[in-house]
Amino acid sequence: PEPEQWPSLLAADDITPRLRADLDFLCGLQAQGARVLYQRADLVQPAAVQRAVAHAVAQFGRIHGVFHLA
């Protein structure tokens, strides 16, 4: 889900435990000052990954970490 949806999803009763854990993790990073960019890309499609990386570099400059939360 898009970051704007995270608070309402975390407040919902019907969220899956896995999604709750992933969103808690990402929100925790943000709470510590990390800038988080949510990207969807199929890792078996190189062009999709290249677009995601290019978007991240354009927004942040250097990339200091990537989390794969599939």
> Hey, roughly how much beta strand do the residues contain?
under 5%
Tell me about the largest β-sheet: none
**Mass-distribution shape:** globular
Total helical elements: 3
Rg, rounded, reads 13 Å
Give the termini separation.
Answer: 12 Å
Category by helix and strand content? mainly alpha
Output the helix-strand order. Answer: HHH
Overall average pLDDT: 90
Number of DSSP E strands: 0
Helix % is 40-55%
Point out poorly predicted stretches. Answer: none
Question: In terms of topology, how is this protein built?
Answer:
Blueprint: H1 6-11, H2 17-31, H3 46-60
Describe the protein's architecture and organization.
By secondary structure, the chain is mostly helical. The chain is 51% helix and 0% strand. It contains 3 helices and no strands. The protein is globular. The mean pLDDT is 90.
Give a short summary of the structure:
51% of the residues lie in helices and 0% in strands. It is mainly α and 70 residues long. The relative contact order is 0.13.
Primary descriptors:
single chain; 3 helices; 51% helix; globular
